[in-house]
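Weekly sync, protein design subgroup
Attendees: M.S., D.O., the rotation student, P.L. (late)

Item 1: inverse folding check
M.S. brought a backbone from last month's batch and wanted to see whether the design step gives back something sensible before we order anything. D.O. pointed out we never logged the input encoding, so this time it goes straight into the notes. Structure tokens as presented (264 positions):
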């Protein structure tokens, strides 16, 4: 993956709630607007504008399913300036208006609650942390050994040696919404007070805020989707706490995999 286009894609994700346009991205990257559009389309098959529109709609879908925010609030948080523009874009992408989509998906999840496997979980207040991450696109599968997976990832050999003992972390951006743009952040979690690091170009430092999470112990990574589904079903049915719609985190503490689901 071209590191410039990785940075461009992450910028589109980070700014999807704003009105900054592709010209701002081109200036940041040191390209002309036509260059950034051409290079981005070559790598992702979509123009930058179309890609960010899809990110916005996928975020909106997650918020509609998992939170009680009203549609105007969701539209604004996803970068839409008015309800009508959001509803038209949502209808084009998902084939139904936001309100009907919310009712349909929440009803389906409620019905599935008695059909999905049970998982035990704990609610934890997690303090602010940092993470050192690289982004992977269309990974073939998530591996059980996150540390070994990270070692085999291009650019990881240049990471500072002292990160070897940090907690391996994967952030899975295409859950809990099926069919989302497939991308995953892989790296390690650090304490909030960690000192500045010299990182290889493919890696970035991310500040992670204090959040409440539902934490599930997994026996192996193949349980990931079932555990996410179980917690989503509980959240919309009122038998558990609602998910925030933010991507799940998978951590490896020694030989134990922990799924952390951000809560509203």
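Designed sequence read out in the meeting:
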């Amino acid at each position: 993956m071209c590191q410039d286009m990785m940075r461009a894609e992450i910028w589109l994700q980070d700014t999807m709630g704003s009105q900054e346009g592709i010209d701002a991205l081109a200036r940041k990257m040191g390209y002309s607007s036509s260059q950034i559009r051409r290079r981005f389309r070559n790598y992702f098959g979509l123009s930058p504008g179309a890609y960010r529109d899809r990110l916005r709609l996928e975020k909106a879908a997650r918020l509609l399913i998992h939170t009680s925010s009203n549609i105007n609030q969701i539209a604004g948080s996803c970068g839409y300036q008015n309800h009508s523009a959001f509803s038209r874009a949502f209808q084009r992408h998902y084939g139904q208006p936001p309100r009907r989509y919310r009712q349909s998906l929440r009803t389906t999840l409620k019905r599935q609650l008695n059909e999905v496997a049970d998982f035990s979980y704990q609610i934890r207040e997690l303090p602010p942390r940092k993470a050192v991450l690289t982004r992977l696109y269309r990974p073939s599968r998530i591996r059980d050994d996150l540390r070994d997976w990270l070692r085999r990832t291009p650019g990881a050999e240049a990471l500072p040696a002292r990160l070897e003992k940090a907690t391996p972390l994967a952030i899975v951006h295409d859950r809990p919404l099926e069919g989302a743009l497939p991308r995953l952040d892989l790296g390690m979690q650090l304490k909030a007070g960690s000192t500045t690091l010299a990182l290889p170009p493919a890696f970035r430092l991310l500040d992670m805020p204090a959040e409440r999470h539902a934490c599930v112990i997994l026996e192996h990574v193949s349980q990931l989707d079932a555990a996410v589904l179980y917690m989503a079903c509980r959240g919309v049915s009122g038998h558990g706490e609602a998910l925030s719609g933010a991507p799940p985190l998978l951590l490896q503490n020694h030989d134990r995999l922990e799924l952390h689901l951000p809560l509203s």
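Discussion: The chain has two domains: 3-104, 122-262. The longest strand covers residues 129-137.
Action: P.L. to compare against the previous round before Friday.
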